[in-house]
Design goal:
By secondary structure, this protein is mainly alpha-helical. The chain folds into 2 domains: about 5-160 and about 165-180, no CATH class; about 190-330, hpI Integrase, Chain A. About 55% of the residues lie in helices and about 5% in strands. The protein has 16 helices and 4 strands. The strands form 2 sheets. Strands 1-2 form a two-stranded antiparallel ribbon. The longest helix is centred in the C-terminal third of the chain and has 24 residues, at about 265-290. The relative contact order is 0.07.
């Protein structure tokens, strides 16, 4: 069984047996040109042999290319699943071909995820297939392999395809041979009543975190990066006045892009109340227990440690399920986008000289406006309004 072992910090000489003190001292003094950070994922085979090409791939993306921790973790999960499949079928990674990748893809179509116990979505399957192809492209480019049947048109099975002159041929065309046909689904935002019900059922600090997503459209990763100083700095720089009903908070968005969000005065008042009550009590209790409380992170749990992404997502999903809803953290962000677009579109129809789509693009931190356009199409297809129209078409529906 393939294993992922996270790199730990080197021990201090006083923390190891006496006979190893010299080795620990020398290890701490050994200079490294590109040291791997603590928490770096290391992949081992069932025989505890380091899977060197996979580790080298992750090293390049985290250390040399400085990708985010979330991106590297995603790559590690893809490589873990792929190498685990190869090991179970006794296939050397350097000898994997198109038939092996197709079998890997089809297995995900037929079997449920061992982690979530739910069927894989087409998006997840395509994401993993493209991740495997990206790894083999890198292996050939970096010299780990001279060639691979997964790269280029040297696949060992023939696929008849209709030529599409509007699409350029290249590596994207190769990926489409293995990728499943995928349709972009439109977001189905929460109604105001559903959002209120969900917020009322959540407990601190998750209720405030959900409010931040609903009121600002922050991604989960951006939300968790917020610090107490970020909020206080925005409040100090923009003193409260009757005319100023909001604050601009600078932050680092996805892809390390500089950006900002606009937080309402009411949201900041709720945040100030959380800081002076729940958060202060949790930090004090953690200090009494002599545990390491996180002083910088805005959102911490009752033990004084920062709220994790997985924990927050689980709380939102379970609480929504208890309310009879199906909600995710991304749906909270989508609800903000749809509500904001609907209001701005109404202002534009009333004569305001604004570009609603461009404003929401900036607020959401999107790189491409096509991404924001999905929310415009979502509000155009209002399921509640369509339901009323369909009811009027059914004979006797109004009786």
């Amino acid at each position: 069984m393939v294993r992922i072992i996270l790199k730990s910090a080197l021990p201090e000489p006083a923390e190891v047996p006496e006979r190893l003190c010299g080795a620990a001292t020398m290890a701490a003094m050994t200079p490294l040109r590109e040291p791997r950070p603590v928490g770096f994922p290391l992949l081992f085979s069932a025989d505890l042999e380091l899977i060197e090409p996979a580790v080298a791939f992750l090293h390049e993306h985290e250390v040399q290319r400085a990708h985010t921790v979330d991106t590297v973790r995603t790559y590690a999960e893809i490589l873990y699943d792929w190498f685990e499949t190869l090991e179970q079928n006794r296939i050397a990674w350097s000898e994997a071909d198109a038939a092996d990748l197709v079998a890997y893809r089809n297995r995900m179509l037929k079997e449920a995820s061992a982690h979530t116990q739910r069927p894989y979505s087409v998006r997840t399957i395509n994401h993993r297939v493209r991740g495997v192809l990206r790894f083999y492209e890198w292996a050939v480019r970096s010299g780990w392999l001279r060639a691979s049947p997964l790269i280029g048109r040297s696949n060992d099975f023939a696929v008849g395809r209709r030529t599409r002159p509007q699409r350029a041929a290249g590596k994207d065309a190769d990926a489409s041979v293995f990728a499943l046909r995928q349709f972009a689904s439109l977001p189905r935002p929460l109604s105001m009543a559903q959002a209120r019900e969900l917020l009322a059922a959540l407990v601190p600090p998750y209720d405030l975190m959900a409010r931040w997503q609903l009121y600002t459209g922050l991604r989960v990763s951006e939300l968790l990066r917020l610090s107490v100083e970020d909020v206080r700095k925005a409040t100090r720089a923009q003193p409260a006045t009757p005319e100023l009903a909001h604050r601009v908070i600078d932050l680092v968005r996805k892809g390390r892009k500089a950006g900002y969000v606009i937080a309402s005065a009411s949201l900041l008042e709720e945040t100030a109340g959380y800081l002076s009550t729940h958060r202060r009590a949790w930090v004090a209790r953690s200090a009494r227990r002599r545990s390491n409380a996180e002083a910088a992170a805005l959102f911490i749990g009752s033990r004084g440690t920062p709220v994790s992404k997985n924990r927050y997502q689980q709380v939102i999903h379970r609480t929504a399920f208890g309310c009879g809803l199906k909600a995710t953290t991304h749906l909270l962000r989508a609800t903000f986008a749809c509500m904001m677009l609907a209001r701005l579109e109404r202002l534009a129809r009333e004569g305001a000289a604004i570009n609603a789509l461009l404003i929401v693009k900036v607020l959401m931190g999107h790189e491409h406006i096509e991404t924001t356009d999905r929310y415009l199409r979502a509000i155009a297809v209002d399921t509640c309004a369509l339901g009323e129209v369909l009811d009027s078409l059914i004979p006797g529906a109004q009786r």
